Protein 1
Amino acid sequence: MEQFEIKKIVPWEPAGIDLSLTNSALCMIISVIFIVFTLSICLHKRSVIPTKRQAIPEAVYFFVQNIMGETLGKDGVKYFSFAFTLFTFIAVGNILGLFPYSFTFTSHLAAVGALSLFMLGLNIFFGLKRRGLSYFRTFLPHGVPLAMAPLIVPIEIISLLSKPMSLTIRLAVNMSVGHIMLKTIGTFIVTMGIGRIVPLVADMAVIMFEAFIALLQAYIYTTLSCVYLGQAISDEH
Amino acid sequence: MSELPQDILEIEKRLAKIKMKGQLKEEAVSYWGRIIVNGFRISTEFIGAVLVGLCVGYFLDLLFKTKAVCMIIFSIFGCVSGTVTIYNSYKQMEKEETKENLLG
C-alpha cells in the first residue's frame, strides 16, 4: 500500500502548522500546470476552422457544455468555467496516477473530501444567492406539518451532507481499487516465473480499463456536481 | 427561381446524413452516460447518507457523553435519509424520461 502513502518532499511547519509540500500536493500542482500549459499551446493560434491542435480542447469544451446542458439547462452557462475546471482537474489527476512513480491524489479521501466540501459550500452559496432565505425551505418542504419538523429536518440535513460524502466515496474508492488491482496483478508478474505472460496481458488490459474508468469517474463527478448545483438553485422542491 | 445544381443538392444531402449520424451518436452517448451516472449515484448515495448519520451520531455522543444513543438514532435517520434520497433521485429520473418522451 506504499503507493497511497503521503510523503513530505519539502518539510515546512510555520508556527507548528504543517504546510509541507507532499507528493499529493506536487501531483495536484503538476496537474494544474499540465492543464494550463496544454490549453495555452492548443489555443495559441485560434481560427474559425479548428486545426487538429485546436480541436482537442474544443472537444472537451463541447463535452462539458453537453453535461451542463443536460443537468442545468440554460442556466448552466453561468457555471461553465467551474464545471470545466472540475472535469479537467479530476480527469488529469486520475490519468496522472496511472504513470509509474506518480501519485493518485484522487484516491485519497482527504483530497477528494476537501473538493467535495468546497462543492457543498458553493452549492449553499449559489442556493442562498439565487433563492435567498427561502433556500432553507429545502429542509422543511411545503405541505409538511410543523410537528414533523424534528424528524424531517435532520433527515434533510443528512441528505444534504450525504451528497459530498457520496461524491467522495465514489471517486476515491474507484481509483483506489483500480490501483490496488494493478499492483496485485503486477506482483504476479514478478513471482510467477515462466507463466508471467498471463498476468502481464491481464495487467495491460486492466491499465486500459483503468484509463477508461479515470475519464468515466471524472465525467460522473462533474455530472453529479452539476446535478446537485441544479437542485440547490432550483425553486421546486 | 432557378433550381440548385445537382452537385450542390448532393452535398446538402450528404451533410444532412452526416448531421443525422452525429446526432444519433450523441444521443446514444448521452443515454448510456445517464444510465451509468444514475447507477453510480443510487448505489453510493444510500451508503453516503448512512455514513453521514453515523458520523453525526458519533460526534454528538462525544459532545454530550451519551455513548451510542445518538449514534443509533442518527444511523436510523441516515437510513431513512438514504431511502428518501434514492426515492427523490428515482422521481427526478422518471420526470426527465417523461419530458424526453413528450419531446420525442
Protein 2
Amino acid sequence: MSDPEITPDVMRVSWGPQHPMSGQTRILIDIDGEKVHKLTADLGFTHRGIEKILENRTFLQGIIPVERMVMVDTANVGLSYVLAIEEALEVETPDRADWIRSMICELCRINSHLYAFGLQVESTGYFPAVFLWTTIDREIILDLLEELSGLVPPDLDIGLEELSIDRQTVRMRVQAKSFQAADRLGLQLAKFGPFASARIGAIEKDPKTGSKRFNVTISLKEPEAGDRG
Amino acid sequence: VSEGVEETFVEAVQAAHPDYIESVGVLKPKWVSLVAKREGFSELAFSLRDEFGFIHPVSAGAIDYPKENRMRINYYLINPSSRFSLMLGVDLPRDDLTLPSMTRVWEAMSFHERETKEMFGINFEGHPNPVPLLLPPDWKGGYPLRKDFEGEGAEP
C-alpha cells in the first residue's frame, strides 16, 4: 500500500475485510469528515497459484483444480478450460457431448444464480427466508448433478464402521450395499501382495436397511530377515 | 460480417506501423494476434487506442520461455465498436525485463501490470503504484510463475 497523505484532518479507514472465507478484500478510504479523498483496493491473498499447479499435471488432472475457482458453478469454468485444450489439440466433440455439456452448464448456471439471488436478498437483512427458498430450489439441481456424477456402482459402495490394528493384524467392520461388494472386496484384498491373508467373516443382513455387515481380518506378512535392519 | 475483415485490419496496422511490428496473425474470426517490437511499443499502443479503437483493456500477463531466454508479455484488448479482440505481445530478453508501463495508455492495466510484476519480475517503468497486488508485502520467495521457480520459501 502506498502511504497515505495523512494530515490532521484526513483519516484512513479500512472498509472491510469482507468475506472471511475466500480472501479478505478490503478498501482503504482516506476521508476528511464525509469527504472521500482516495480509495485504495486491497485484494487480499486470493491468488491460489492454479497456473503453477497445472504445470505439473496432465490436461485431464487439470480439470479438478480449475473447477475449484467457483464454488457453485463448476461446470462452466471447467468447460472453458476443456474447450481451450480441445482447441489446442484439435479435438472435435460429437453433438451428443455438446448437448450434454450445454445442459450441465445451464443447470450449474441456474444453480449459481439462485444462490446469488438468495444471498443478495438475505444481505438486505429483511428477507432471510428467500435464501432458504432458493436453497430448496437448488436442491433439485444438486440432486440431478449428483445423479450424474456421484453415482457409485453397487459393488463398490462400501463403508467402514470400525477399524482396529494389532501388530500384524488389521480388523475391520464393514458395511456394504450388496453381497457382490463383499466378494469383490475379498478378491481385491487377496490380490494385494503385502497381505499374508485376508478373510471375510460371516455376512449379516440388517433387517431394517437391507445393508450387509461383515468383518474383515487381514494378516500382514512377517517381514523377512533382511528387512529388519 | 463480410469476409476478410481481419485481413483488412492486419494490412491497415502493418501499413501504419511497419517499423514497430514483428508479426501479425489472425487467430480466429475477429481475433488478431500482434507481436510488437520492443522499440516504439508505447507509440504503437497509443496508436492502437486512438486510431484503431482498442479502448477496452481486458487483461495482461506474461509467459516464461526459459529455454529461449525470453519472456512474452501479452496485453489483451477489445475494440467495442467493431468487436475485434487483439492479443498484443512483446518479447523481452530474460536478463533485461523492462517495459514502459501501459497505464499511461490504458489506466485499467494497473492491476494486471502489478500482478505481472510480482509473478514474473517484469519492471514496468512509470507505473504509478508498483507494489505487490496479490502476494504478501513481505514476500521474498522469488517470482512464483516463472518456470524456474523452485517452490514456496525458496530464496530469490
